[in-house]
Structures are given as C-alpha cells and as structure tokens.
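hi support,

uploading two proteins for the ticket. first:
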Amino acid sequence: MSLDHPPTDPSDVATPAMARFLDLKAEHAGYILFYRMGDFYEMFFDDAVKAAEALDIALTKRGTYQGKDIPLCGVPVHAAEAYLERLIRKGFRVAICEQMEDPAEAKKRGAKAVVRREVVRLVTPGTLTEESLLQPNQSNTLVSLGRAGGELALATAEMSAGHFRVASLSAGELSMELARLSPSELIVPDSLFADPDMAATLNTLGAALTVLPAIKFDSAASERALKNFYGVTELAGFGSFARAEISAAGALIGYLELTQKGKLPALSPLSHDGVSAYMAIDAATRRNLELMQTLSGERRGSFLSAVDRTVTAAGARLLAARLAAPLTDVAAISHRQEAVAQFFDSRDATDDLRAKLRSAPDIARAVARLSVQRGGPRDLACLRDGIVAARESRELLQEARGEAGEALTALLEGLVAVSALAAKLTHLLVPEPPFYARDGGFIRAGAHAALDDIRSLRDESRRVIAQLESRYRDETGTPLKIKHNGVLGYFIEVTPQHADKLMTTGYRHRQTMGGAVRFSTDELSSLANRISQAGDQALALEKQLFDEMAADALAAAQPLSRVAEALAVLDVASSLADLARTKNYVRPKVDDSKAFALKRARHPVVEAALLASH
C-alpha cells in the first residue's frame, strides 16, 4: 500500500494518531518514519513492510485503513540506534518523530486528545554523528555540488569533525574529486541531470546521491544562509568565494538546517580547498591502486592497511585523507617529512608520545554530538580526557620540526583557550560518566553543595526519617513511629492511649483507626515533600549542570578543534616514523624535476602479503 499520495483528508477514515502519521509521512516522502508511540518507534504501511524486511523483525498489523489492514512493525526506543545503523547501511533514510509533550499534558485537553508529535531529525548517510553509527577511522563526508554561471564547485563538510571547505573545479575534474572525497552523501540540484554526461557521473554515487530542487542552490539565498549560520553581515572575513562556491556551501548549510531541524553542528569557518594542491587520480586508477580498499571492497590488503600505525581515530582519518589526496607541492611534502624525521630521530620521545595518544578520545566527534544536542556526559568526559592527553603530549615534546612544530604551536594555543573548560569538567565530572544525561549520576560527589544536599536527602531518606522519629519521641515522651503509605504519604502513628498528648502539643490530627491514631507536622510534611521531589530535583540540577558544561564546550569549539587536529597530525607523523623504523624505510628525496628513480624498492602491500604467507 503506497503512501506517496495519501488521501486529502485521512482523518475521515483514520484515528487521530494515524491521521498525524499520514500528515508527517506526506511531508517526508522518501523517508522511513520512526513514529514514537510510548517506548517504541513504530512504522506503518509501506514503511513497516520495508523496515521489517531490512531489519529482519516481525511484521504485524494494527487497525484498518481504507478497508485494508495496516501493516505495522516497531523497534524499542532504547535500542533504536542499532536499527538505525542497519537501515542507513542499506541505503534508507529515516525521519525521527518524537512525542513533544507528556501524555498527561495531552489529556488535559480532553480524554481523546492526541499527544503532539513532530519530526525532530532526518537521518541521512552524510549527517550522522552518533558514535555507534560511524566508523571511528573513517571520515563521514557530506558533499554539495553547486553550479553558477557555468562554473562548478564542491563544498565538503564533516559534521562529525566540524570541517567545512569549498573548492571550484571543472566538469572534467568532478569525477576525480568525487573519487577522492568518497562522500557518504552528495547533494545536487536536479537541474544538473539535464546534461547526460553529468547525470552519468552523478548516478555512479547510487544510494549516496540526494537530489534537491535547483532553487535550494540559488547563490543569493545560499549567501544569506551562510551569513545567518556564522552570524555575520559579510563573508569577506572568510575569504573571496565564487558564486558557484557560495551556491554549494549555502545549499549544504540549508540541507543541514532541513535534516537537523535547527540543531546545527559546530563547523569551522568556511575555507578554500584547492583541487590543484592534490595529485589528480581518476576513479579507475584509484580503484586499481587499492589505496583504501581492495577490489573486493575490503580494507585488509589495501595500501592503507599496510601502513596505518596510528593510535587515535582522528589520526587514522587524517592518514586516510592524505593517502586519498597526495600532495603536489614539494615544499608542503618536505614540511610533512620533517615532522616524520623529528620522531624518527627521537625514538624514546616517539614511544612516550604514542603511549599518551592512545588514551586520547575523539575530541572532534564529541564536540559534534554536543553541538546538535545528541551528546551526553560521556562526551564531556571525552573532552576532559582529551585535553589531559593533549597537555601531557605537549609536555613530552618541547620542540619539533616541520609540521610537528606547527602542531605543537596549535596545541599550546588551543590548550590555553580551553584551560577554564578543562578545570570545570575535571571538577564536576565523575571518572566514568553514563552515556545519557537523563540517567544522572555524572556529577562528582562533593563538587556541588546544593546537589550533594539533594542527593543526601534522596539517598538517606530512611536515616533522615529515623532521626526525626527519634527527636519526636524525645520531645513528646511517647513511643510514636513515622510510617508511610501510598495514600497518606509519611505520617506519625501512636496508640490511642498516647494520642491525647500529641493532640495538645501542636501535632496535626490526620486519621483515627481502630488501634492507632495518625498525625503530621509541618516539618514532616515539608520533609516528605522534599523526599518525594529529591530524585527529580537531583536529575534536574544535574541536567542544568550538563547544559552549562555543554554550552561552555561549544563556546570553545574552535580551540578544541585546533587541539584535535594537532593531536591527529602528531599521531600521523609519529606513526609513520614508527613504521619507517620498524620496516627500515628511508626518506625519499622529492623535488620539482620529472626524474623518477627507485633503488632496492619494496612494496608495503606485497611485502605484507609475502610475510603473511610464510
């Protein structure tokens, strides 16, 4: 049963909840709609049929529509990420629809009122941020192709790392650039498909291709989108950009606004990424060179797998990006070589650095999750531990040459800028926080006095009640007891023969039973109320502290990015030095001539295969 064209008035034949589903589905055609129903995301009609098959889960039915059964399947909310991953890997896009109010609030509008629901996010291959949905050592790149005045440009952003770049290119360079970038998702205007050659190139992207109306790439609208995103009145501070570059970059920002529903990621200032700076490698050659993966699609056996000795996820992604885009500038190549040489000549320092880097979490992706409000206390701990690892790494390296020297300078500048954030995170967070802020328990005992008081009341309510009971006994001289039930809450209970004494001492009578009389006091009522609210108050205060820390982290997004990038550079340089030392590799001499000479050369992949066969 297709819902591409639902009835104009589905509420005539559908329940209010199903009518809302149909409305949202019509607004998000092409997406599988995860429709929140209590503790489950439920899917209906064609969505249910497709999802049940893709996820290998039960397909059932609920109710009827237009005289036919409504197919249904569902996944638990707490396990949704695992199912999302499988759907995205199989080429589906998913719209996440949440309940925007408590069911109790909805009931205030009437017994038959429906809980308000809205789509809060569109999950697409290029807009993933969740750790469970991403490969740690692989970039997840969203690319936008813009055209203006006959010129082309590609904008690239990695939400999970905060990178944002744009480059002009010719039609002949497009295929090679797409092969180099290997985008997780490419957004393009539908107008480009009027050109058969262009259409053939774009269609090779398959499930990674997203076609949008050409109006989304209007250069004037794109310029406004970029200015709004960065909060500036002019883009001149970022550089000079061609109309096609503005078109591509602005359309990418517009797509992020669409998919993230206003929760935009923290991206670096837009910068140029010159195509001419890299060696041109066509798609067929790149594939046959098996740089990133073998012809069978496996990483094992590729050139990358043979030379990758990085110890951080960010370092692994940087190495892969460099192998995908070999430099053509001799000075830049020499600059990188100097960094490797620095570590090659200092074995002890290299080993110590690599040991420190192994403990460095993925700072960039933690910031990305926080920026779109999908982060948690564990991400804040990543920042804390990453800053510590960065500080200790810098202390190991007092000086360095080439690119490593620049990385040390960037590391110092970044660490100075985030020192206050580091101190706050270290003071407030427990060593191993939970994933979700809603779970609580991530603020360290003794770090926040008000929270400690609330927790004490919550966790030690029995002791507090026992102390109050003992004091009341001493004050009244009666063997009273403080008890609790679901109707009265906390109350004071005495036998009838002691009731008169309490009646005359300010205790408030509540209930007389056959063998007992029950009382209360303002103090007990206040304490009971505080105890019942303490759990909620503790969670609310922790959530407030989480929001404050997350805001501080986002305010420091740029220096955190510099720290993350510097650590990745140091990881790549030190790992290549370790590789060279272990494999007895030598530094090649690179110049501007066309001479090419190899002496006693060995191929890393062939050598690894020969060693594995013996």
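and the second one:
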Amino acid sequence: MLAIISDLHLQHLGQDAIRHLQDGEVYLTRVARNIGASALQLWFAEIEARLARRRVDELHLVFAGDIFEVHRSPLWLTSAGESVRPTREDLGDDVAGNPLRERVHEILDAIADENAEVFAALRLFVGERTFLRDAAVHAVASDMPLQVHYVLGNHDRLLGAWPSTRRRVRELLSIEATGDAIAAPFPRYLDWPRTTGYGVRVRHGHEYDAWNFAVAPHGDASLQASPADYLRPTPGDFVTVDVATRIATAFRVRYAEDLRSAWPRGPRLRELYCGLLEFDDVRPAGLLMRYLAERLGASDADTLTALRPVLLEALTAAQHDPFFRRETRRIGSGAFFDGMRGWLVRQGLARLPASWLGRLVNWLAGRGAGASLAPADVAAREPGIAALGIDTIVAGHTHEPDEVPLGNERFFLDSGTWRTRIKAGVGDHFGRLRAMTLVFCYGEREREGGGRRFETWTGHLVPQDIGPRTEKLGPRGPAREQLRVRRIIAQRVDEGRSLGGAELQLRIGVDGEARSLRLDGVREGTAIEPVDVVIPIWRALDGELWATGVERDRGAAVIDPDDVLPWACQFLPRKGGADLGGAYEVGYHGAMHMRAADAHLVVEYELESTGAV
C-alpha cells in the first residue's frame, strides 16, 4: 500500500511572533500555522484501519514535496550574515562559509526545533510501528516491510542541493539509508510500475507550473527536466521571499513601535500584521484585500493606507531584480514588471485612491496565483506511462485536491495540502479551515476480491489551535542590557545635487523602544562616529533590532526628491541560543546592513550591561 501526503509546509514561525506591552505586562501575538503531532497521528490511524481490513504485504509512506517550508522564513531577511536569497543561481559547495548553504541549514534547524513533536511521532511510527491516538498506544504489524520516500517540491527545493542537507532531511523523515545512500540525491519522481502491482507515478507537481519550475510546462519539456533543472531557482521563489515574506517583515519594521503599543492603534495593526502572515492561505487569492480589511476591522481605505508603503517597496524590489525580470519575461509575465505597463502598475500602487488600489492589488494577487496550465492537462502527457503500465498519477502543489480522469481508466490525483485554508463565504466573511488530503494506492494482492485501486479522502477541521492568538506572558521586568550604536558607515548613499553631502534621518530601535538620529553632510564611503545612541533592551521582549530612514532633499523636491532608505532588521544574540527570555550577549559587537540597489548603510553596535539586577 502507498500512503501519500504532500504540502505540509512545516514552517519556522518563531520570528513571526511579536511581543508587546499592555499595562506593564508582556503579551505574545502569533499565528499558528503548523500542523501538530496529532494530525500525523490521524494519518497513522487511517493507515492502521486499512491495514486491518486488507491483505497488505508492505507499506510505503510517501512525502510528495513541500514538506519543509524553506522559503517562507524571515531568516532570509533578518539574519546577521551575508544577504542571500534562494534565487541565487550558484548554489556553491557543501562547505562552511557558503552563505546559501548556511542559511538553508539555519532555516531547516529552526523548522526541526519548532516541529520536533511531529518528527518524533513519525520516528516512533517508523521505528517501533506504534502511534498515540485518543490517549492510547496503537500498534501496527511489526514484521511488515515499511519504507519512507520523499520527493522535492518547490518550497523545499534547496534541501536537495548539498549532501549535508540531504542527510539531515533523511534523519528528520526517518528514511532508512546507509553508506553513500544517506547523502544521495532525492528522486525527481517515484514510479511503481505495473510489474510491482501498483501502476503509480508520484510527483510534487511544480513541474506543471511555469511560475514554480525552471522549465516551462510546454510540450513535454518540464516532464523531461534534468536533475540540475530541479535545483534551479524560479520566479515563485522570489515571490515567496521578496514579496510575501518581505511585505510582512517590512510592515513589522515600519510599524515597530505602534505594533507593540496598547490602544487604540496597536491591536488594529497587530490584526493586520497577522493577516499578512497568512494571506497566502486566502482562497480565492483575488479577495486578498477584502480579507485584510476584515482582519483590520476597518475599511479598505484604512487597510491600504497602512499597506501602501510596503506594497510599493515589494513592487520596486521586483522591478529592479534582474533575476525576477528575466524569469517573468521567460514565462510571459514580464509585461507587468517592465516597460510602460510596469510603470503604470507602480504609479497605481503609489497614487490610486483606496477604492481603485484595492482592485489593483486583488488583480495582481489573482494573476500570480496558481499554475499557468491545469495540472491534469500536463499530467496527461507524462512520458513513459504506457510502457510502465502507469494508470494513476499523483501530484500535489496546488493545494486543491482533485481526481481527474485522463482516459483509458487513467486518473490524475491531486494530493491537496495539510495547510490552513482561509475560505471566502457569505457577506464578505472568511473562515479558517485546516485541510487534510490523504491518498492511498493499492497493489494487486491488496485488491483481490474486487478491492479499490486507490482512495482519496479530503477532510476539513476547525481546531482551536490554528490562526492568530494572543497570550499573556507576565511582567516585563527591568532592562538588564542595552544596545549602544557606535558607528554608521555610509557605503553607498545618494548625495543628490547638494555640494554638502546627504542629509539622513534615521530611526533605530529595539522592539518598541527607538531613537531618532539626524546626520548631515554624509559622503559616500565615509563613517560617522562617535554616534553614541543608547537603547535599553528587555529580555522578555523579542530583542528585534530595526532601522528605518529617509534621505532628505535640501533643495527643490522635483529636482532632487527625498528617498526612503532601505530598512533593516535582525534579532540580537542571547546566551545559550535564541531562547526568548534569556540574557543578551554582553560585549557582543554586531553590524546591521540597511541595503538596497541605491543605498547601503551599516549600523555598528555593541551590547552592554545596564547594571540592573
């Protein structure tokens, strides 16, 4: 029996949560998106039920891609090391010092820590053939062969790039391997030909989607892609990191003080921020702005006033990124980012009134959602299926479960998702559902007596542990450490038409505590010191260092307009790791980079003790 699931999107969520103050008490606001171990136990229970009523000789657990959410992590934007993105085309070697490899390991370790119970439940089922359900231990046949399989998706593509990541994934998914097989490349797809009794092919399914695969699905090209093609970046990678994740992180930085404040503005902005963290679960995507307005509890105009700066920044990043512009031209979508049409889209985001801006954003969200061709249309062209006796093709990726006849009693099965779905309903209201799709395929011996070739089951739950939530943590306590800004280096800055250099206005803060700084006569390549800005920091809060700013014009705004400086954000190091509540590393010297195509400032700082006990 093949038990197939996909699109768990286990995610690093720690840096999305935000701690804020109310009446001297610390509260934590977060969005619960990951499945728990109980969801996996439900899968095991469904497997046990089928094993009990069928003649099953073997069990294959198949993880069909996007199990790990590597791309949707703020660590791409907030890590203190070298700026790197998953769109980097040179993957580099499997050695320390490779920034892309180190970032992927950092994210994978964070995912493993935050989902430790899920991986422990899988390890127990595979290793001891037991699982926990309704507070009771259940066991399945211990002498039956059991194998775990995994194919890469687009969101966990980079886990196949190096032997070290492949070893770590096999360890987490309890995939048995020895010798060189521990670090061997993962298969692009899995075949169980008719000779095995199944007649099944399993893919992730991003091969059917031009936005999320490096070879466009025209003809049979994407279905015959090479192993190297599977490791190439895609425009969808850029959208996930530098649009979806960037918008939420930029919003967090831009409104850092208000997000951590009490009434009246704080709660409303936190509601909108939570909406930004889960907006990619909204269905249909074209109702995004309506959903965000509901989260804010206000009109579209209020929502768009708060969002306009971060939406404009994300569009600007897309229009200036060479990789994204090249790739969108390749798949035929570049007109929305290049030339006159791209200029019109930018002007629309910058200038349209709220009523029209909302329509533009919804339209753009709808344009970027989903595959360019129906998955079943591409699946029907799968090569070699007749010769292998393949009559069932299984793929996920779309998050839309489906069963589509392909002719001659062949079927395409979409394995859906286990992620939350935010569904539009009556009267512009939305509801949050936890989805789960299971696919079971049976071998010939398991079908004796008229049994089924396959089963698909999709369920929707409304558990209490998903979506936004706020909890009280306790008192803030004294500030035992502080951050001192020592120096600011202007590596690249627009000096404008003034002969006296640039005038910069910066806002630097830690969590909700901030200081303003004005720098006059700034020349490119110079260092400003001593700065001597001191900011208290509290262990009970996030320890999030951030900076925003503006380069002011001294003369006519038409000739030399003001420029918004790039924002920056990173989390301050604590003793013993990143556990919140721990002491900060006194004596630590760090640097935070405010970096974009036309500006680059470096904020150098030191962590000190305040002497408070």
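thanks. also noticed: The radius of gyration is 26 Å.
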